[in-house]
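Model it.
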Amino acid sequence: MPITSSAKKALRNSKKKRVFNVRRKEIMAESIKNIKKLVKEKKGEEAKKLLAAAYKAIDKAAKGNTIKKNAASRRKSRLAKMIKKVA
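Modeled.
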């Protein structure tokens, strides 16, 4: 446990940020999972419609430093490639 007041404050802020980061990651993972499910079912057109929402979730996670910029680019690229194969 933190002893100094600045360490206590840092812990409080860390806990707050964790909530945002976890929520962003869950939203991102859920959107990716939905697209992968549609691709598996060979529903390329429906997956394309969800692609914009997935991009938005990935970009928000990268913007908030929840994931790194290049990781976000990689995920977006792989999703697009996956959908392209089906459609």
